[in-house]
Amino acid sequence: MVAITISGANGRAPSIAKKSFPLTIEVGPEDTVETIKKKVATKCPKLYTSRQKLALKGAKAALTDELTVKDIGLASGGELDIKDLGPQLGWRFVYFVEYLGPLLIHPLFYYLPQYIYGKAFEHSELQKYAYGMIMAHFVKREFETLFIHRFSHGTMPARNILKNSGHYHILSGLLLAGDLYRPGYGAAASSMKNTIMSNPTFLNACLGAFTFFEISNLHTHLTQRNLRPAGTKTRAIPRGYGFNLVSCANYFFEICAWTVVLVMTRSAACALFLGAGGFQMAVWAAKKHKNYKKEFGKDYPKGRKAMIPFIF
């Protein structure tokens, strides 16, 4: 066993446990950073493991939980810095809250137009299709969150939940619902009569394409789930349907599904949501693609793009 001293980063001990630091714990050379965090949490219960950022003395980069004491060069003892990351929320809870917003907001606009638009009116077939497709999308997202996704990072700062939820609650919730279910898209609207947006063949084609892309997206999530055994953070190269062309096939099919909604509705709010979401997914895809190539090197398929086949 060796002794490791843990003190506050930049000389500032975590405010919720100032009197406990500097703190000395004993570990073995093969113990992991996660083990160190658990021992810290045992002595300072308020600093549960996901609130802790451990780094080598004077360094800024966080040590990953899988590294051993020997890996970080402290097999003979030494010092670590600790930083309190603040209250944390589990990613599964965060995603559940994000997708719950549209599931609550869209029914309000759809079923209570008299209170929102000042009058009741008959919904057009387009509005009925759009409502069913959007609700199905977010029900699917909730199902995936609860039963399919495995998260490499367990938590995020609690303060970020408002920012994360805002994208869905405002853009795909209030703005999209407010635009789609207004009287201008209603059955009696002159702009809807005798147009392609009231054509059953067009609407059914859009529904078919949307369903195809949603099922494809679900398939990619199942592929990703099977890459990571339960309870681990194992990473592997995704292969198979969609992934033979891009690193982030799930993002590609997500964008395709929402593009169908945009083509069907011609909604400015849908275009805004798709544009904002597409940009963010492109940023994430570029980062993931780069990390895949760095991690797997020559084993990673050379012909793949990040998110859009043959383009990006």
TrEMBL record:
Domain of life: Eukaryota
GO cellular component, one term: endoplasmic reticulum membrane
One of the GO biological process terms: very long-chain fatty acid biosynthetic process
Subcellular location: Endoplasmic reticulum membrane
EC number: 1.3.1.93
InterPro entries recorded: 3-oxo-5_a-steroid_4-DH_C, SRD5A/TECR, TECR-like_N, Ubiquitin-like_dom, Ubiquitin-like_domsf
Gene3D superfamilies noted in UniProt: Phosphatidylinositol 3-kinase Catalytic Subunit, Chain A, domain 1
Keywords: Endoplasmic reticulum, Fatty acid biosynthesis, Fatty acid metabolism, Lipid biosynthesis, Lipid metabolism, Membrane, NADP, Oxidoreductase, Transmembrane, Transmembrane helix
Membrane topology category: Multi-pass membrane protein
The Ubiquitin-like domain, residue ranges: 2-82
Parts of the chain that traverse the membrane: 241-260, 266-286
Protein's pathway: Lipid metabolism; fatty acid biosynthesis
GO molecular function, one term: very-long-chain enoyl-CoA reductase activity
Similarity comment text for this entry: Belongs to the steroid 5-alpha reductase family.
Descriptive protein name: very-long-chain enoyl-CoA reductase
